[in-house]
Write a structure and sequence with these properties.
The complex is a heterodimer of chains A (350) and B (318).
Chain A: H1 2-14, H2 16-35, H3 42-67, H4 75-89, H5 94-121, H6 126-144, H7 154-160, H8 164-170, H9 174-177, H10 190-208, H11 210-220, H12 222-227, H13 232-258, H14 265-281, H15 293-312, H16 317-336
Chain B: H1 12-35, H2 44-69, H3 77-91, H4 96-116, H5 122-141, H6 152-159, E1 161-162, E2 165-166, H7 167-185, H8 187-197, H9 199-204, H10 209-234, H11 247-256, H12 268-287, H13 292-310
Antiparallel strand pairs in B: 1-2
Chain lengths: 350, 318
């Protein structure tokens, strides 16, 4: 028992950023629900969850390139591209829809793979290479969808943007969602299950694989990782492919949620920038090697919860942008200040 | 590699980018000759007009280069530029231009202090500052384009011509000379290169690296401020989001001009070449009436392929 506790204490000490973010999210969310005029309720939770999913996926996507010490400025653009693809393909018969979803996510992964190939074999800096490929992704999105629009299956939209009960009712499973054993979990929003489910079945196994460990090793010391015979190129390509994969998931959800696709350059840019903020808030170091996708997920949720506060607090709408900016600045700064922890001044210089 | 045996790593990108500019001009002219039978791309007036619109990007990119030479980045350019333009038109009169520049310098100072003293990664700090400045401007203007207009002198600097040459180009030239002299001839400039190469070594050799970082960010803020004042003069007023189109092209211009994104290497003339390259690429694509989709794809492909020619980093093997 004692050793379990001390193990946990060690874990907390080694992942200070992550646990800090988790605590911050819990406090923010509990206070939010106390302040909400109608208190905690499933509809509010469902709505909140819906708004957080896309950013959650994009933040997870951004994490993996950041872990190798890079940055992927194309995640928002890839999300836009895949949302446009999904708005064309995700409708019709169930088989057709599943095919559309697979194609959507795979095209995100393929774009990420191309990023990885360019960065590894072209030996380009990730930040500038993805800046350029991001423009290409937006261009392709504009080819697919010059004007906003599209058609996504309505049932699917309803089923995945509501609680589990509505999901079961839409597809007539579990006695239309009225089965007795189903009731205790019927209130859980489907978007949260999708988000955390993806993190659990994709990120957690990846992190434990050799390739995943290599991602961390590259971020800590690439030279040492190379000398240890780790598969550096494979890990880098995998990192960007996985980033494209998660961006594809985000794009797919965005298309289903809005029932449309739109090649919106401004939106793509703001998702990319918010993803960096979410990654930092979630305790991942921009220098690489420290952190994880689940932390970024928490970071994305924090960013969204902060924006929920504006609805229940009567802040002058004109000041909202300013308050949002200040909160963002303070949050990312707190996560990133290293000065306070450094014992030797020379350690400050990378 | 062997094609340019005598070129230093600093000059190779500049030569290649210049060759590419000529290639763009040749392709564009071939296109217009075959479709319209004229060659507008080669007329001095057209080129000067393109350079005039390019001068705003050029000034913003000059400031961005100072920061990138340190291995940092300034993502607050869009709203620094917009804020400077909005405050300049708000104040108006003789004080308009000094106000715009002061706003840019103040935001740059704030950026510099955060990056140098709190040691928050510049990518994330300037990003936050950008959204704070945006919030300030939304509170100031109510989220609309301000009603105030640019002063006559701002209009003169941005939109008029002297001897047939747009004044904006002279402003760009003046800024360029100042930046080039700073980088090549002053201790501050040499310290920027030293700090960008290895901050620890620069610090140990007695360079006040924090002051250097602050100085570079202030310069970047001032340049964005000047660009904002000029752009407001060019379009007669300031408006929301006027700076959004400048961030990525500014970074791309600096990098295409051969400045290393990790800092420490790059010549100012390269940034000028990079700006001209991007401006001409855009104008040729619009002459070809390329839809936005194709422009984005070509734009990205050109940057990638040029970097593949000369932007490759050394393989890390130890």
């Amino acid at each position: 028992m004692n050793s379990l506790l001390s193990q946990f204490a060690t874990n907390v000490r080694q992942n200070r950023g992550f646990y800090g973010a988790l605590l911050m999210l819990i406090v923010l969310f509990v206070v939010y629900n106390f302040m909400h005029p109608r208190g905690f309720s499933t509809p509010v939770l469902v709505q909140n969850a819906n708004e957080a999913v896309v950013l959650g996926f994009i933040a997870m996507a951004q994490t993996i390139p950041v872990l190798i010490g890079g940055l992927d400025l194309s995640v928002g653009a890839v999300m836009t591209l895949t949302a446009c693809i999904a708005s064309e393909l995700v409708n019709g018969s169930p088989a057709h829809m599943i095919f559309g979803m697979v194609v959507t996510i795979m095209s995100g992964a393929a774009f990420g793979f191309a990023n990885g190939i360019i960065i590894v074999y072209g030996r380009l800096q990730p930040i500038i290479a993805t800046l350029a490929t991001g423009a290409i992704a937006i261009g392709l999105a504009l080819f697919i969808r010059p004007k906003p629009g599209g058609d996504v299956d309505g049932d699917l939209n309803w089923a995945v943007t509501n609680s589990l009960f509505d999901f079961a009712e839409t597809y007539h499973i579990f006695d239309d969602g009225k089965a007795a054993w189903f009731q205790p979990i019927a209130w859980i929003p489907v978007p949260l299950i999708i988000l955390f489910g993806m993190a659990a079945i994709v990120w957690v196994p990846f992190r434990r694989s050799l390739t995943g460990r290599t991602v961390y090793a590259i971020g800590s010391a690439e030279g040492a990782a190379y000398m240890s015979g780790l598969p550096i190129n494979r890990a880098k390509i995998a990192a960007f492919t996985l980033a494209g994969f998660f961006a594809g998931c985000g794009g797919l959800y965005l298309a289903i949620q809005t029932s449309s696709g739109s090649a919106d350059i401004v939106q793509a840019g703001s998702y990319t920038l918010n993803s960096i903020a979410a990654v930092v808030i979630g305790g991942t170091s921009l220098l690489g090697g420290i952190g994880g996708a689940v932390g970024s997920l928490i970071g994305a949720l924090i960013l969204r919860v902060i924006s929920f506060y504006f609805r229940i607090l009567s802040i002058d709408p004109l000041l909202q942008t300013l308050v949002q900016g200040l909160v963002l600045l303070i949050a990312v700064s707190l996560g990133a200040i290293r000065t306070l922890r450094v014992k030797n001044r020379l350690e400050l210089f990378r | 590699m062997s094609i340019f045996p005598t070129l230093t790593p600093e000059n190779k990108p500049i030569v290649i980018a210049s060759v590419f500019i000529l290639a763009i001009l040749a392709v564009g002219t071939a296109y217009t000759l075959s479709t319209q039978g004229t060659a507008p791309l080669l007329s001095p007036n057209y080129l000067l007009q393109q350079l005039q619109t390019g001068s705003f990007l050029g000034i913003a990119a000059a400031g961005m280069m100072m920061v990138i030479l340190l291995g940092h980045i300034d993502l607050s350019i869009p709203w620094t530029l917009t804020a400077a333009a909005m405050m300049a038109t708000t104040v108006g009169g003789d004080l308009a231009i000094p106000t715009g520049i002061a706003v840019g310098a103040a935001i740059g100072l704030f950026n510099g202090l955060g990056v140098a003293y709190l040691r928050i990664p510049s990518m994330i700090f300037t990003l936050g500052v950008d959204s704070v400045v945006r919030g300030l401007m939304v509170a100031h203007t109510g989220g609309f384009a301000p009603q105030t207009a640019a002063t006559p002198i701002m209009r003169f600097l941005a939109a008029e011509k002297i001897l047939g040459i747009p004044v904006a180009i002279f402003v760009w030239l003046a800024v360029s000379i100042v930046i080039a002299v700073i980088l090549r001839r002053t201790g501050f400039g040499r310290s920027i290169y030293a700090t960008g190469n290895r901050e620890g070594a620069a610090y140990l050799s007695g360079i006040r690296t924090k002051a250097v970082v602050v100085g570079a960010f202030v310069t970047s803020g001032i340049c964005a401020g000047v660009a904002g004042v000029l752009l407001a003069g060019y379009s007669a007023k300031a408006y929301q989001g006027m700076g959004d189109a400048f961030l990525l092209p500014a970074i791309a211009a600096v990098v295409l001009g051969g400045t290393r994104i990790l800092g420490g290497q790059g010549r100012y003339i390269g940034t000028v070449v990079g700006v001209i390259l991007i401006v001409l690429l855009n104008s040729v694509l619009s002459i070809m009436q390329m839809p936005e989709a194709g422009r984005q794809v070509i734009y990205g492909t050109v940057i990638i392929s040029m970097l593949l020619v000369y932007g490759r980093t050394a393989k890390i093997t130890s």
